[in-house]
Write a structure and sequence with these properties.
This protein has about 300 residues and is of the alpha/beta class. About 50% of the residues lie in helices and about 15% in strands. The strands form two sheets. The protein has a four-stranded mixed beta sheet. A three-stranded mixed beta sheet has the order 1-7-6. The longest helix is centred in the middle third of the chain and has 35 residues.
Length: about 300
């Protein structure tokens, strides 16, 4: 009896020992080494696909892996490949001749989900400071341009006071279209009527065509000059507005409009010239809506300075 108990106890210990060793072996295989690039690669893919929810920091064992990816050159190569794919798609599109194509860019929320990590690692801090300083420079340039425009606007108000010079100016503004409906300020109606025939003849000589048909609108007039220096009412410094007979084409040849064109060309621009870097881009859709070709593109990935 004693020997039977000994045998059973031996068998139990042997089975228990085997079970413990198997569990230990399984756990050792399931545990991910801290330097496992395979695990980090899988985590990165799951994160980019937005399958890793509510994450705020990169796993400790993947810090070096992500650092190497972000600043070691691989991220930039990924971006270059994405840009190549975009250009490849765009170059295959046949654009219409009517200029009615439109593009819609959609930023995927995956970009936003990574902001916490990069904020913690201070990625983009340099770009933020650089952009802040650039904005100050642009604001200074914009202030100078606005001051110049305000000064020029005041000078325009004096242009119509020179009757002889103003006649020549208005005639030049009229000589723009072959058949038009002409609108002017009510105070300029007599001036316009006095130079209409000269304007028609000059247009015919320049374009080597028949004199155009000009109809002066005597029902609708442009706003008058400002009544006061600080007036906020609509006003016009002078000039004319020309419209095709069907009203579909309007050419605003007022002095104020010409001034705006000049200053729009001189406004400061952001000289950064850098594209936002994202690690994933796809064409979502391409359709026609109300005659406009709408191309929708989606972007996803990580922000990077």
């Amino acid at each position: 009896m004693q020997s039977i108990r000994g045998v059973l106890l031996f068998l139990f210990l042997a089975i228990f020992s085997k079970a413990i060793s198997m569990k230990s072996s399984y756990n050792s295989r399931a545990t991910v080494p801290s330097d496992s690039s395979n695990y980090c690669l899988s985590w990165q893919l799951a994160m980019e696909a937005n399958n890793v929810c509510a994450w705020r920091t990169v796993p400790t064992q993947c810090l070096r892996y992500m650092e190497s990816y972000m600043i070691g050159g691989q991220y930039d190569r990924d971006v270059e490949l994405i840009v190549e794919q975009i250009l490849s798609y765009v170059n295959q599109i046949v654009l219409s001749d009517n200029g009615m194509d439109a593009w819609i860019l959609d930023v995927d929320d995956t970009c936003i989900s990574n902001v916490f990590y990069y904020r913690g690692k201070q990625y983009g801090e340099y770009s933020t400071q650089l952009n802040a300083s650039r904005i100050k420079v642009l604001q200074g340039q914009d202030d100078v341009v606005n001051d110049m425009k305000e000064s020029a606007s005041k000078e325009l108000l004096r242009v119509s006071n020179d009757k002889k010079g103003y006649k020549i100016l208005v005639k030049g503004l009229i000589v723009q279209e072959p058949s038009v409906l002409l609108r002017c300020r009510e105070v300029d109606k007599k001036v316009v009527e006095s130079i209409v025939e000269d304007a028609k003849r000059e247009y015919a000589e320049k374009a080597k065509v028949q004199p155009p048909k000009l109809t002066i609108d005597d029902k609708v007039f442009l706003p008058p000059p400002p009544s006061k220096a600080d007036s906020h009412e609509p006003y016009c410094s002078g000039g004319v507005v020309l419209a095709s007979q069907d009203g579909k084409i309007v050419c605003e040849n007022t002095l104020d409009a010409r001034l705006n064109v000049v200053f729009r060309q001189k406004l400061p621009e952001d000289g950064n010239g850098q594209r936002e870097k994202c690690s994933g881009v796809q064409v979502r859709n391409s359709e026609t809506i109300d005659g406009r070709r709408i191309h929708t593109m989606g972007k996803c990935g990580r922000p990077m300075e």
